[in-house]
Design goal:
This protein is of the alpha/beta class. The chain has one domain: TIM Barrel (Alpha-Beta Barrel), CATH 3.20.20. Helices cover about 30% and strands about 10% of the residues. The chain has nine helices and six strands, in the order ααβαβαβαβαββααα. Strands 4-3-2-1-5-6 form a six-stranded mixed beta sheet. α4 links the parallel β2 and β3. The longest helix has 14 residues. The chain starts with about 25 loop residues before the first helix and ends with a helix.
């Protein structure tokens, strides 16, 4: 005869509720953003900036996502800058994120603009890790050698700042200009022929009913300076140039993460790098334009 015993079921202990984020809890920052430099000295204001960028960016697991890893966030956005000295180019790569293929322009940065940039950053003791002189094709700027001499004044004060010239080096003229460059300047030659397979830059998320979301490029490449002013990234500067949105930051006193976020909320609606619509847009040998870009192209 088998006797059945009624053994009461023991309910598992309830899991503790996850700890809420607080501005004083540095461990939360380390857990969510393990690549932030100098974690122990991060301020409450910087933490607010990090949380603010989470709203505009698609950052789910930055410690596992290759493109986010090491780029940092928050105030690290202001460590690097790209200076678009001209939008003239002899390559015309398809889907160029400077608009040189479909939206050519004779705009180029002035010597005074570069001089003001150097003076402002020196007077504010703003230390940069890297300055990239780019375009367009920067060697086509008639004053490129003088621009480099002016930027060298910044390097005299901050010797550890790396100065790069990004050139395609295609034409004999460009290669001749390169031979005239000072030895301290780092030359980055990208390619020897037009690159046919870029991401679809001319693709506005607003045309697909998607919100503005920033990609990793501002942290990878740095913020941008063009003839109109400062932007969170160089593609964003191109968008403002083409659509005439008037969102450029004019003064160095206005350079902060909050203002960059305000720019992103407008510019990222027009950008094909938006992570929400970027999937499946790589390696296209023909230019693709969504309705907003077609209107700008035909206008």
């Amino acid at each position: 005869m088998h006797i059945k015993y009624n053994i009461p079921k023991i309910s598992p202990k309830p899991k503790p509720k996850p700890k809420q984020d607080t501005l004083d809890d540095i461990t939360i920052i380390i857990k969510k953003f393990p690549d932030i430099k100098d974690r122990k000295r991060i301020s409450k204001q910087e933490y607010k900036e990090i949380l603010a960028f989470q709203d505009i960016c698609v950052i789910k697991k930055p410690q596992k996502e290759k493109r986010w890893k090491g780029y940092g966030t928050g105030s690290n956005l202001l460590n690097k800058i790209e200076i678009d000295v001209t939008y003239d180019c002899n390559m015309k790569c398809v889907n160029c994120n400077r608009g040189c293929d479909l939206f050519p322009s004779n705009e180029r940065i002035s010597i005074d603009k570069v001089g003001n940039f150097v003076n402002d950053f020196l007077s504010h003791q703003h230390k940069l890790d890297r300055i990239i002189i780019i375009g367009g094709e920067p060697t086509l700027h008639p004053d490129i050698l003088q621009i480099i001499d002016i930027i060298h004044e910044y390097k005299r004060v901050y010797a550890e700042c790396n100065i790069h010239l990004a050139t395609n080096g295609v034409s004999d003229f460009s290669r001749h200009i390169i031979t005239l460059m000072p030895s301290w300047l780092r030359i980055k030659t990208n390619t020897k022929k037009p690159f046919p397979r870029h991401y679809k830059f001319y693709k506005a998320s607003k045309d697909f009913n998607q919100p503005a979301k920033a990609c990793y490029l501002p942290w990878k490449c740095g913020f941008s300076l063009n003839p109109h002013g400062y932007y969170p990234c160089a593609p964003g500067a191109t968008i403002d140039r083409i659509f005439n949105l008037g969102v450029a930051i004019k003064q160095i006193d206005q350079l902060n993460c909050q203002n960059f976020i305000k720019q992103m909320q407008i510019l990222c609606e027009y950008c094909g790098f938006n992570p929400l619509i970027r999937s499946g847009t790589r390696r296209r040998e023909i230019a693709h334009m969504s309705p907003s870009w077609k209107t700008a192209y035909n206008g």
